[in-house]
Design a protein that fits this description.
Pfam families: Amidase_2. Keywords: Cell wall biogenesis/degradation, Hydrolase, Signal. This is N-acetylmuramoyl-L-alanine amidase. The protein is 38% helix and 7% strand. It is an alpha/beta fold. Among the domains are: 130 residues, Peptidoglycan recognition protein-like (Lysozyme-like, 3-Layer(aba) Sandwich), CATH 3.40.80; 50 residues, no CATH class. Strands 3-2-4-1-5 form a five-stranded mixed β-sheet, sandwiched between helices.
């Protein structure tokens, strides 16, 4: 009887050993393996032996590089590329070319305050250049970039002055004369910009010219006549203020010069603030009309 039991046990062992492996390895309590489809960053899968040094290095590599102005220009140019098309770069092209210069006063208390204003996220305002009372010039944007200095404005038929102009801010609160070193630095800068970009002399204007309902800068203290004598802007011929023809239309004259006459009162005040200076009422006197007519003849 014992021999029979032993024989049956050996027989069962032989059968078990000869069974297919798939049957032997099958088990009901083995967990199901799931495939992780998330791509693993091999660079981050470092041995734990590296310890804190590895973590520090990984954190450092995660810090984005500081972009230069030229890098930003290239990035802006790349965003205009159609991703559904093949890409190969041509070698002949231009980027934004400024054709106007808009002069402002800061209406703040220092050049440092203005610089800080242009670097705060919530202000949404900037300029290409800021000039201090001592003549210090600070460039804050590449000339080819579009600054946010003009705001809602219009000159002639142009309603987006930011896209075609350079903005220059003068450190001045709007209630005081502009110091000589500041004006000298401005003249030098304007000469460079005019030569470099071939800007017409008529296209050097003030913020109040393009936004008469909102702005009064660069204030009545700004020496427009002096700038015009150097080729930056327009001034009238004081020695030849001839009588105005009876059919002269002052509204059309203002419009031809460039002013937005949709608010005629604001346009007249902006004109007189710049060219008459001593009187900024909304009424055009005979002298004012002579000045306007003289300027109008330079444009038309």
């Amino acid at each position: 009887m014992r021999k029979t039991v032993l024989f049956l046990s050996l027989l069962g062992l032989i059968v078990a050993c000869s069974a297919p492996k798939s049957r032997v390895l099958r088990a009901t309590n083995v967990p199901v393996l799931r495939t992780d489809t998330v791509k693993i960053n091999i660079d981050s899968a470092r041995p734990s032996a590296l310890g804190e040094a590895a973590v520090t290095e990984a954190q450092q590599t995660a810090i984005p590089p500081i972009m230069t102005t030229e890098d930003r220009v290239q990035l802006l140019m790349r965003t205009g590329i159609n991703k559904n098309a093949d890409w190969t770069e041509a070698i002949h092209y231009d980027i934004r070319k400024p054709n106007f210069v808009i002069i402002h006063h800061t209406a703040q208390h220092s050049i440092n305050q203005t610089i800080r204003t242009f670097q705060l996220e919530h202000t949404k305002v900037s300029a290409h250049y800021v000039i201090g009372k001592d003549g210090r010039v600070v460039q804050m944007l590449n000339d080819y970039l579009r600054s946010w200095h003009a705001g809602k404005s219009k000159w002639g038929n142009i309603t987006d002055m930011n896209s075609i102009s350079l903005g220059i801010e003068l450190d001045n609160n709007g209630r005081e004369p502009f110091p000589e070193p500041q004006i000298q630095s401005l003249m030098s800068l304007l000469d460079t910009l005019k030569t470099k970009y071939q800007i017409p002399f008529t296209n050097f204007i003030g913020h109040a010219d393009i936004a008469p309902t909102r702005k009064d800068d660069p204030s009545m203290f700004f020496p427009w006549k002096r700038l015009a004598e150097r080729g930056f802007g327009v001034w009238y011929d004081e020695s030849n203020l001839s009588a105005v023809p009876t059919n002269f239309n002052h509204v059309d004259a203002l419009r031809i010069i460039g002013y937005d006459v949709s608010n005629l009162r604001a346009a007249i005040i902006a004109f007189k603030r710049k060219f008459i200076v001593t009187d900024v009422s909304e009424v055009l006197t005979d002298h004012d009309r002579r000045v306007l007519y003289n300027l109008y003849r330079r444009y038309f």
